Amino acid sequence: MDTEALRSFVRAAELGQFQHAADELGVTQQAVSKRIATLERELEVRLFTRTARGVELTLDGQAFLSHARSIVAGVERAINAVRPGSRALRIDVLGLRSAQAVVLHDYWRSRPEANLDVVTLRANDPRVVVAAVEAGDIDASFRTVIAPAVLPPDLQMIHAFDSPLELLVGPRHPLASARRLTPPQLHKHRIWVPGIAPRSEWAEFYDQLATDFDLRIDAAGPHFGDEVLLDTLAESADVATLVGARDRYIWPTNHDLRRIPIVNPTLAYPLSLILPRTNPHPELRGIINHLGTLPRLPDAVWRPSWATTPQRAESGESDIENAQRSRPRPR
């Protein structure tokens, strides 16, 4: 079905005259008449009756109008979605309170004209996220594929930033008064991280963290949400959890929870950015530039063995700088 004929039908119905519709659409009245005649033949019904003042919808025309409007509006939305400079950058984060979302918000505050669509795919399996980037459903994702060799050849994964971990405890916990902690001081304390999904990057992270520092990471039970986790910490004298230093958590004042930095070494959760190798969304250049300005962690840092880290190429360029050289696709 010809969408221009549908557009002509909708405007003629709304304006009541073929000539007015033609003037608005920038075509002749004859063109509008021909489009609507073709549409009537295709539908095998009369859509208009002529009156002294112009045209009026028939009963069939009235029934068809709302559907035609929906089709025309859908086509316009589709066109706007790919029109140069008009489509928002669709970028996936692990959660809207996560460090990635915080970093993106800081970027947007520095560039409020940036058109961002921050989404959460709710997918634990990184292969689902990779497929979404490859299909163009999203433009980029703050995820990590632990075995980069399995990435499709048209995608790349670069180091985004490292998120240092903090211990979060309630006021009755034995470590609550500490100003900072080292990993050995966490030994034998229960660190509750509910809802760790198998095959997810964070499952691999906590497995390696527990092994390397002989920590007691407890993933028992379903994750009923951050509020339940924070309530449990406030009431407990022996339960702690790990959170990212940039992650945003909000709790009642009477919870009196404590965020305690972990040092010597700093425990770093490595965050990567998966994006197309060629023709990335133009807005990604600004985000990658912003990532390059984030402060680096101190030298004494623990990362899992599979972490992506900033690498210096022979030319002296980092992986972020190399990603910036990818030619943006026109929009």
TrEMBL record:
<dbReference type="GO" id="GO:0003677">
    <property type="term" value="F:DNA binding"/>
</dbReference>
<dbReference type="InterPro" id="IPR036388">
    <property type="entry name" value="WH-like_DNA-bd_sf"/>
</dbReference>
<keyword id="KW-0238">DNA-binding</keyword>
<dbReference type="InterPro" id="IPR036390">
    <property type="entry name" value="WH_DNA-bd_sf"/>
</dbReference>
<feature type="region of interest" description="Disordered">
    <location>
        <begin position="308"/>
        <end position="331"/>
    </location>
</feature>
<dbReference type="Pfam" id="PF00126">
    <property type="entry name" value="HTH_1"/>
</dbReference>
<dbReference type="GO" id="GO:0032993">
    <property type="term" value="C:protein-DNA complex"/>
</dbReference>
<dbReference type="GO" id="GO:0003700">
    <property type="term" value="F:DNA-binding transcription factor activity"/>
</dbReference>
<feature type="domain" description="HTH lysR-type">
    <location>
        <begin position="1"/>
        <end position="58"/>
    </location>
</feature>
<dbReference type="InterPro" id="IPR005119">
    <property type="entry name" value="LysR_subst-bd"/>
</dbReference>
<dbReference type="InterPro" id="IPR000847">
    <property type="entry name" value="LysR_HTH_N"/>
</dbReference>
<dbReference type="Pfam" id="PF03466">
    <property type="entry name" value="LysR_substrate"/>
</dbReference>
<keyword id="KW-0805">Transcription regulation</keyword>
<comment type="similarity">
    <text>Belongs to the LysR transcriptional regulatory family.</text>
</comment>
<keyword id="KW-0804">Transcription</keyword>
<protein>
    <submittedName>
        <fullName>LysR family transcriptional regulator</fullName>
    </submittedName>
</protein>
